Amino acid sequence: MTPLVVGQILSPEYSLGMVALSFLISFAGSLVALICAGRMVGADGKPNLAVVTCAAVALGGIGIWSMHFIGMLAYRLPIAISYNMPLTVVSLVAAILISGIALYMAGGRRKFSRSGWLGGSLLAGIGVCVMHYMGMFAMNMRASMNFDLTTVGLSVLIAVTAAAAALWLAFNLRKFTHKVAAAAVMGVAVCTMHYVGMSAASMVCTAAAPVDALAIGGSYMGLTVFGTAGAVLIFIYWVVTGSSLDAPVAGRRVRAS
Predict the structure, then answer these.
(1) What are the extents of the domains in the chain?
(2) What is the pTM of this model?
């Protein structure tokens, strides 16, 4: 292996297996979130906060954050990379909270709201970008990051567009087959934002990585995140849906206001 030189620009590679896992978990999280969204409001017109929470965890914690973290682990450099644990945890909590607020703004009342959808889309898109770049700054390694602002701007545009599509689909699709197709589209959109955002950074070799006692890492971290996220999704699906995929929500019809 050619020795690295301080100031050298590092060329990244991706583990295709981890990239595939990142899409799969994003698709699964998006699908469960779409199923939860149809059950967020009960027959009395009041939001079911437990279901809203489940939808937020499925979309923000699994569909977005877990995809992001597995995608980060797919990113390989010729130097060791670990991740600052406090920043990583904060990014996870932020993704869940922002997704929950955006879902509630768009459809947490009796019907789908265009104004809530637009506001929620902007909030969710910017929030996803904050979470993404916070996760990048959580990287602990012998390199510094330089960003191409044009590519960063493109990633923000993709994030807001993806959030708008996700929120619209969440409250305007009824059939399960349509939700599966929509989840696939959402998975592609979330992954596109992530990998475009990653491409915005140039990594430059430095003398040494900063000492970080709270860093996490390891070769099996990606599979651990995938397995944990999958178990959480199965639990959410079981709690929210019971035995029926297409059970109607009594007294509720989704209409744009």
Answers:
(1) 14-206+218-241
(2) 0.81
